[in-house]
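Two entries, shown back to back:
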Amino acid sequence: MSRLRSSVIVSALAAAGVSATSMAQIGLRVNWTAPGGVPKTCVIMSDTDGVSMDAGGSLVLNGSFGAGCPSGETTPPLPPVILNGLDAAELPASSAIGAAHTVTWSADADTCSYSASTFPAAVPGWPTNGDICTTAASCATTQSAAVLLPVAGSYTFALTCRRNGVTAPVISQRTVVVPGIPTAGCIAPIGLTRLEQAYVEFNYTVNNGINQDARYFENIYGYFNDETPLKPYPGVTNLNRRPFIPLGYYMAMQFTVPSNLAIGTAGRYRFEETQPQARTMSYTLSKSCGDFRATPQAPLSPFCTTNGGAPGASLVWIVGTSVPGLCRLERGETYYLNLVHATLDAPLISTCPRANHCGNTLQNAVEAGSSPWP
């Protein structure tokens, strides 16, 4: 028999002129609507014991409905709902290093967490481990989080809420970009445009990539997949990323070498041979965004460029020391990894044979003999 609220039974008894302690057989008329159905009136007939009251004050009736009425099946739980989600008033599309924001939310759910969030560095006030609320009552209570954006980069705040017995969670998400403080503006030749959002495929996942903020190195090379937290420079070792660059565009990925990165840490950017779409590409490490000068400016060396590289070509970098053939980077300094499907001698003449865009794979690899990457 389906569960009936006591108030419904009492109303029915009162309408029939029968007291709650009566032992006579009785019929109750119940106005009822099946999930997704239309309102109907069902009659439940009690057995000869009628209606009684147990020691706890609850009414008890043994009986059955007729055909087409409630059968005693349990109604599935409703999906979770985020009542007050993340919004632009609290988390704007862009902010500044060191900025503080207060985020409030509530949900009709059993548990909520921030674990799907991805940041270039830990955000005080927004823990990505554990649940923020663990009961329906606590999730329904307005939560308040005071967050601080510590470094430049792209911050994706995600609130994920779940209902017991329901497989799919509900997610509220906002991305905040915090520009760095570059030492110079973009200096690419007129006719080339910086690509800000790029479709990127990961480790040969053909036709299974995601759109990323291409202005920051960590967004491309800072994680193994789109669910793990971002790692600061030099990122995750030995990753293959295929960014698709439209004709007339270039990528400039900003990064800051951590001040605590060990002297002698080294790596290489290698034009990986798998299915290249543009015949050649050039890439540079520079203090300037969009720097495609064939001769790097001091203090960077000629080893900080790869000019019209074919598959297999590499640019090797090292931190805090000079080694022949390697591009020296300094701790605490901000740089750009600039990428274009052209040669540095003719950056406006694309080597992409396609009508709209090309995607070549550039590998982020640890160099032999390097200090361990963090």
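entry 2 starts here
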Amino acid sequence: NRINQNGPKEMGWRTTATNLNMNRDFLKLDAPETAYLVTLFNRWMPDFFMDIHTTNGGDYQYVMTYMVEDFGNIDSGLTDWLQESYIPGVSALMEEAGFPLFPYVVFMQWHDPRTGLRSRPASARFSVGYAGARNRAGILVETHMLKPYHLRVEGSRQLIIQTAEIMGREHQALRDLNNRADHFCISGKITEKPFAVTYQLTDKAVPVELHGFKYHIKTSDLTGLERVVYTDTPEVHTMNWYRHNEPDRHVALPRYYVIPAQWSEIINRLRQHGVEMTTLNRDTTMELHTWLFSDVEFASAPFEGRHRVTSFHQEEVMRTFLLAPGTVIIPVHQQSARLVAHALEPASPESYLQWGFFNAIFERKEYAEAHIMDGIARTMIKENPELEHEFNLFKETVPDGPRKMWELYFWFYKRSPWWDPWKDVYPVGSVRQ
């Protein structure tokens, strides 16, 4: 139900009945509809994935645009096949069918075609990004809302037919590439090099011809701002296309992740994704690597039903985990290795930590009264005289006000034996050796 969409008469909405966008939900699985779709994906494990949407944005001549994950964020063999075989092949067939294709792009500056075009990889919250994280190539199709509905339907039908034609010819080659991608993860080779969790668009651009429409820039007498006015006159625009994305942050993947039994919601989500895991049936103590967080910041508003963690500093630490029956051990050497990494590495924008599943670890649950803490603080200084110097330096930084006494005594409380040692500690451990 895009604004000004050219049919059909009856249209749906972009969210579920609980106001969740399924195409932001593929990894977190908050919507039951997405969970059922992912269950089907796991049981079927398709060799190729297609997702057909309707898009808005600037006006152009194409009935449909597309997006594939060929930015280097999925298996390299599948990337090469998309670039060298599928896209050239399907583009030629669609041209013959009367539906020329163009990559899905957005303007560098919203609504302003003069600023050039940009494309970025999709993360695992999106359908084709999820497919890539499962070692499968896919295509996202965006039919244009301003084109007649019957053309959008026929263009989509033709793309499915032409894709099936390519699959008929290349099914064995694609299956071999899928198997090779799976083996790369199952063998553990994926852990031998740093794993990229974020990508950054660079300032490198290539010229590209966009078959659009002649447009004018006018100043709106309503807003006083410039706006684009499209005409019906076809025109080819030579534009800068920014599509070069480089890995921005890497992580070193462990051999195993360990999720304590009490974090059952995380365990269940990963089971829905078909992730392989072993369940402990007795109490177990393990020394594990994990992360201590500081400078944690949260989004000021919810996104897709969750309050996301937007930034933090993380420090690797060793902790003794007391693990109850029901705890799971997840090997990274499995078909779903990429998905597991995106879900459990805190630095990944798709991690359950950044989605807010672990927000409770950042809450302080206990406190100390001033009349109790004063005596304890004096005892702490007597046992460790260096604390007094550190405290005096800290005291100079605390401004006067009603919270000053709290801040001063809290400084000692945080260093006392009663402080919660698991506050701000990631409850998911890992085995690195």
